[in-house]
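ok so heres the complex, two chains, lmk if somethin looks off
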Amino acid sequence: MSEEVVQCHGVTRVYADDAVPVHALRGVDFAVHKGDWVSLAGPSGSGKSTLLHIIGGLDRPNDGSVSVDGEDLGGLSEAQLSDLRLRKIGFVFQAYNLIPVLTAVENVEFIMQLQGIGASERRERALGILDRLGLDDIGDRRPGELSGGQQQRVAVARAVVTDPVLLLADEPSANLDTATTKELLELLRNINENHGVTIVTATHDPMVMGYAKRPVNLRDGAIESDGSTADASPDA
Amino acid sequence: MAWRNLWRVPRRTWLTAGGVAFAILFVVFLRSMHAGAFGAAINLVTERMSGHVQVQHPEYLDDPRMRHTVEGLSAVTEALAGHPDVRAVAPRGIGFALVSAESESEERSFGAQVLGIDPAVEFATVSQRALPGGRALERAGEGFLGSVLARNLGAEVGDSVLLLGTGREGGVAAIAVTLVGIFESGVADLDRSVMMVHLDDFAGAFGLEDEAHVVAVLGQDAADAQAFAASIARSIESIESVESAASAGAARVLPWQEIQPQLAQLVVVKDTIGFTLAGMLTVIVTFVVVSAFVMTVFDRTAEFGMLKAIGMPPAAIFRMVQFEGLWMSLLGVALGLAAALAVVSAVAAVGVPVSEFGDLAGMYKRLNLPDTLIPAFATRDALLIAGVMIAVVQFAAAVPAPRIWRLSAVDALRDEE
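and the predicted structre for the whole thing:
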């Protein structure tokens, strides 16, 4: 059996902000193996984004345990979680979330700057990843000068430039048209297959689920199905 | 990055930096006018009369008796002359006498203040006052008379002038001198009531030995008089020969503010008004800048959420916002100081008629100062307000910090979606 990058045991998340508690996750057991591309799917409120956030250390479960690359997230402080995200996890967001005042190459460099990598090495690696992802011609442009697809590809470059053990993408295609989504998914497939980056996406988009190696369907905070692309619910 | 972040919303940046710049311009211009107006008066009073500090008998200021003198004068003046910040040391004897002039026409007498000075060491502005007649006092046996007093006495250069007063021990003090010059200080009270003689003549007549009533001392700057007085006091305390006298309280050092309390009080009142206005303006600017930074952090909630998500610690985000504040304040400070320098220079080039200011006009007239006010760039105040503004902006940038710490990356990102 291949190495497990993510392990979730009995993960429960209850939002108690309102008068009626909302059970976002109900004792989820789940694992992601190295080199996998897992697509968490399901209708709104199914718990897929919550699970993604908990795996990424952005949220904490009320019960159960989560470990990433062998580190139990439950035992980490906020600062340690922040450091773990910086070193081991790459994020791609629905709204791209590039820093608008930085150019594409500077956005890619920024995360390495947080890691304390020297300026020349940062620039070299940023230009290298942009080149590999076919973005070398837009390195000096700011996000406002890029299309949505270009911005999302730069966001992917930013997420993988530090060689994370895990790439988390939350609705990465939500703001993209079909052609651009396809380009993005090809890019993610390239990263997954040729660079061995483990990917977990949370999505409504059947196209994304189609690209994933392992679709996982959630409903009402529990895993409904976990298997091959063929098992994925087509209307999820 | 912090600098670039400033220009996300240029209008907000310009407004905020403009507020800082305006505060600096207002305060520096106000203080420069103040420094120009009162600086001239203070310089005139200290450089031409009192000195920046005076060494006196402890009781002389409140009770200027003939016997209240500074003893061990030679040692005191020698010690003060060696002080690195001292420009001039002028021992003076001060008494009152009936002054009579023997002219060819008639003999008249008037009461006058007699000032015994040593022309060799006296402030140039005291011993070389504007001379409508004769020459300055140079040696013993000579007299130097205020122009109004000379006119009242009917005295002319070359006349004999007789002074009759009461000596230190109660005996008659009498001096006969030859009038060598008539001075015109421009200060009517002085011209009407002062006669100067050589300190040796004064000491001989009034019964002083190695002593004087005041030792006026000029330092480098009237604004530093308090510290200068403390430094001079230490110099005097270190004189062995007068140590016992000093320890017995026989000499004290007074800054000009205590010798000229009315002028000092006027400066305090103006300072209070100036600092109150500056304080009010600072509070207003603080509110403006705090609002700007609260809006900045609010606008960038999603971005800060993303930064936290990718692993940027809250403290690093906080530092980034503080740097933005630093750039903002430096921009405002640079604009404000440049504007203040330009405005003060422009006003200084043409001057402001003193007649525009009621109280000040009266003071300028009494002291015979020019009728045009020239502002003096208030460097110290400019640096002070610049520092205050930088601190204000840093404070303002820190106000929304708790929001950065509390911010949930998940909520911030969800809100944007």
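quick notes: DSSP finds seven helices and ten strands in chain A. thats all i got rn
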